[in-house]
Write a structure and sequence with these properties.
Layout lengths: L5 H7 L17 H10 L1 H21 L8 H26 L1 H7 L12 H22 L1 H18 L10 H20 L7 H17 L8 H6 L5 H23 L1 H6 L14 H13 L10 H23 L1
Helix pairs in contact: 3-4, 3-8, 3-14, 4-6, 4-7, 6-7, 7-8, 8-9, 9-11, 9-14, 11-13, 13-14
């Protein structure tokens, strides 16, 4: 019996990942599949899971009765944060066409499945929907969602903070870290409590270092299109050394924050995330790229670490 070749089997499967050809979009039209790729679903897992975990943690942290419809509120608020992230993904691709043609030609715009103006329109519609949904949840949640939108829009559009060395990492870390966590906490709790602010600052500091991982595969394209990043300025090894303290010390300092009374004692296991920070550092030096994910392995582990941080914080707060 002749066994079919692996290539023949893979060709019969539908398009599952971003890098696979659009000829395999079997159950969806190429345009619908292009819109899905435009939103980058994998990157939406982190904001959705992180925000959900922070909201659950805030429910148990406060000394008030839990609303009967808490699950519906969490679902809607988490989806709102994910939609903002999806909008920023679409806008980023609409404004990065030249760079994507060099480093990520498999994306829907370089492939001609969707044009840049359409992608930009989709981004604006998602932003509008997310903002309208956010203000209906509560005023503070709407305020933080608006601030996240300001940072993500100005990251891609003028003054286009993406092109400025090191500022680009800070500019993307603040909305995904501090503002994202404060937005999630504000759904049920006071966003100006010490706990969410410190957790948000830890996340932001980690992301300032970790977000350099997204530039590994774009190092040549960014250089040719006038965007300065740590990777294309200092190289992978020096960038890893620069970013490592930002990824390592936020978790390493958690016991100090506990001793100072800033954080609760039950959060000490979060310190163990320093080991994942070390793994990210190692993968950044190796500059290992994934065959299925559209970025480096270090980038994927960075996202996983952030998710573990939020889930761990929620679990320890619930049972603490």
């Amino acid at each position: 019996m002749i066994k079919p070749k692996k290539d023949d089997i893979s060709e019969k499967l539908p398009k599952l990942t971003m890098k696979e050809p659009y000829t395999r979009a079997k159950f969806l039209s190429k345009r619908v599949r292009g819109i899905i790729d435009l939103l980058r679903p994998f990157t939406l897992l982190a904001p959705y899971i992180v925000s959900m975990a922070i909201m659950v943690a805030s429910l148990f942290y406060r000394d008030e009765p839990i609303p009967s419809n808490w699950w519906a509120i969490i679902g809607q608020a988490s989806l709102t944060i994910a939609i903002v992230n999806a909008a920023s993904n679409a806008l980023n691709q609409a404004t990065d066409v030249k760079a994507d043609k060099i480093s990520k030609p498999y994306r829907p715009i370089p492939q001609g499945v969707i044009d840049a103006p359409t992608a930009q329109s989709i981004a604006y519609l998602l932003y509008l929907f997310a903002l309208l949904r956010a203000v209906l949840i509560n005023a503070w949640f709407g305020t933080f969602i608006f601030l996240i939108m300001v940072f993500t829009v100005t990251y891609s559009l003028p003054p286009r903070m993406k092109k400025y060395l090191f500022i680009n990492q800070i500019w993307i870390a603040i909305p995904r870290g501090l503002f994202g966590i404060l937005a999630a906490w504000s759904v049920f709790g006071n966003p100006f409590d010490v706990m969410p602010i410190v957790i948000g600052l830890i996340a932001t500091t980690f992301l300032i270092g970790g977000m350099a991982t997204k530039d590994i595969v774009d190092r040549i394209a960014d250089l040719e299109t006038g965007t300065r990043t740590l990777i294309n300025t200092y190289g992978s090894k020096k960038t890893a050394l620069i970013c490592f303290p930002f990824m390592f010390f936020p978790f390493a300092f958690i016991p100090i924050f506990i001793n100072l009374g800033i954080l609760e004692s039950y959060l000490w296991p979060l310190t163990l995330l320093v080991f994942l920070s070390c793994l990210i550092f190692y993968l950044m030096i190796r500059r290992s790229e994934s065959k299925t994910l559209e970025n480096a392995h270090a980038w994927a582990i960075m996202y996983v670490t952030y998710i573990f941080f939020a889930l761990g914080f929620a679990v320890f707060t619930i049972f603490g």
